[in-house]
């Protein structure tokens, strides 16, 4: 009922078989006080997200979780154009069907200007999408950024390293991105990771002893407390450098 709906601030509907039709019906309800909404694992595609984006049902939403759905670039474009998300601070889009175009939509949005947390893990935004995000004023206050498994390569890591937006960043995950020693070297030279506390570079980044040495001698991470290099090939020499 409407009274019940008005009081909700947090709603988790993860894995509840919503689908696109369920999303259309759900989007017809108005939840004025809702701040956090989790719609992960619901087989939502562009149609369902477009219904949500055009509904204006959640005018105070601050956190939106859409992980593990079937959302593509058209859905993210609709989200990026919606005035309903002008207060959104946290957006989780891991494991969908997103490409460079989605990253560009987010970076050019006139409403997604308050983002502090952005998770696009396991999509396909590539270096070009990473560059668009890195240069966007929409990430000027970003604190949590997960771009793991997106085909960033060395150029994607370089784009992040050269971005003043990274000054506020505390958590960065770049797993499975083939950034190589050259990408790590670019990050180690950056002057913008001054707030970074957690850095995850695990799995298929092809980091060797040279990359480990770049990190070890770098002065770019004064607040770094957690570094994850699992399933790279830093070897004894790399471990020696990291151990100081």
From TrEMBL:
One of its GO terms (biological process) is nucleocytoplasmic transport. Gene3D superfamilies: Ribonuclease Inhibitor (3.80.10.10). GO terms for molecular function: GTPase activator activity; small GTPase binding. GO terms for cellular component: cytosol; nucleus; perinuclear region of cytoplasm. PROSITE patterns: LRR. InterPro entries: Leu-rich_rpt, LRR_dom_sf, RanGap. Pfam families: LRR_6 (PF13516). This is Uncharacterized protein.
């Amino acid at each position: 009922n409407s009274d019940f709906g008005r009081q909700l601030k947090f709603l988790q509907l993860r894995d509840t078989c919503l689908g696109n039709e369920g999303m259309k019906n759900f989007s017809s309800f108005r939840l004025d006080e809702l701040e956090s909404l989790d719609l992960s694992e619901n087989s939502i595609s562009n149609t369902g997200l477009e219904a949500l984006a055009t509904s204006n049902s959640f005018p105070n939403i601050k956190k939106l979780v859409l992980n593990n759905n079937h959302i593509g670039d058209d859905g993210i474009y609709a989200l990026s154009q919606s005035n309903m998300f002008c207060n959104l601070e946290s957006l989780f889009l891991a494991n969908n069907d997103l490409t460079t175009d989605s990253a560009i939509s987010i970076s050019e949005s006139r409403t997604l200007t308050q983002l502090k947390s952005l998770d696009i893990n396991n999509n396909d935004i590539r270096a070009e999408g990473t560059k668009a995000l890195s240069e966007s004023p929409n990430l000027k206050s970003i604190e949590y950024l997960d771009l793991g498994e997106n085909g960033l390569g060395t150029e994607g890591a370089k784009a992040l390293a050269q971005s003043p937006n990274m000054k506020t960043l505390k958590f960065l995950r770049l797993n499975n991105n083939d950034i190589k020693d050259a990408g790590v070297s670019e990050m180690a030279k950056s002057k913008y990771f001054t707030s970074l506390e957690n850095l995850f570079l695990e799995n298929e980044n092809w980091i060797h002893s040279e990359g480990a040495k770049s990190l070890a001698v770098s002065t770019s991470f004064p607040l770094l407390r957690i570094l994850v290099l699992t399933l790279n090939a830093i070897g004894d020499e790399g471990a020696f450098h990291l151990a100081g």
